[in-house]
Amino acid sequence: MAQEINDYSRQGDALFNLRLVYESMGDRGKAEEFKQQQIAIAKQILSTQQGNNFTEISQTVALNLREDFAGSNLSGIDLQYANFMGADLQQTNFSGANLTLADLSGANLLWANLLWANLTSADLRTKLPRADLSNANLSSADLTSAYLPNAKLINVNLNYASLQNTDLSGVNLSGANLRGVNLKQAELKEAIVDKAIFAENQGIYENMRQELVRRGADFAVSD
Fold it and tell me: Where are the beta strands (DSSP E) in the chain?
């Protein structure tokens, strides 16, 4: 197995050097092609159980987690514990991926696809404008002060997550489970909360509760 990993490492290094050559020539298309080959090798290592730490695997094939995954397809793979802190992840496809305990703090997730992703206990103190997290599991995730303009959180599980000081203005939370969510100083102006479940929340006061009920939120489970 060690020999195979060394082979993958050499392939990754060779592809990275080719990327540098084509980038210096101004051929970004060709450089992108080689980068995608590096990502394919990383996914192959993961799928054949020759490694289970995507952060280490990426380094093995000379990928930079902060710079090399914007717009990439990382759907359905095991990324638990991955360190994407401060990474450029614009338009990256994480649909169905396992991001349990992943660090996405400070990452740029503009237009990211996180449909059905498992983000249990993930660090999402970051920017998620227009990201789609519908049907994702964000139980116990940290979204403190997250930036979520026009994001979709339809049917998302936010059980005991932190949304403290988070601006949810205009966010679609239809059918979401917000049981036990910390909503202290959160902004819910114009948020879509039809059939969203609220219970045991911090930061929900009576006037806010009445307004959310008027907009279709369900507080029945906490009565």
Answer: 177-179, 197-199
3-class secondary-structure state, position 137? strand
Where in the chain are the domains?
1-63, 70-223
Expressed in angstroms, the distance from the first to the final Cα of the chain is 57
d(CA 51, CA 36): 19
* Pairwise CA distance, residues 168 & 161, whole Å: 14
Handedness of CA 72, 5, 62, 87 (dihedral sign): positive
* CA-based nearest residue to 179, from 151, 220, 213: 220
Contact criterion met (CB below 8 Å) for 5 and 45: yes
CATH for 70-223 is 2.160.20
Query: pLDDT digits over 108-141, tens only?
Result: 999 999 999 999 999 999 999 999 999 999 999 9
Count Cβ atoms within 10 A of the Cβ of residue 213 and give its class: 0-12 exposed, 13-18 middle, 19 or more buried: middle
Place of tokens 């932190």: 162
Six-digit token pair at 206?
């009576």
Letter for the amino acid at 77? I
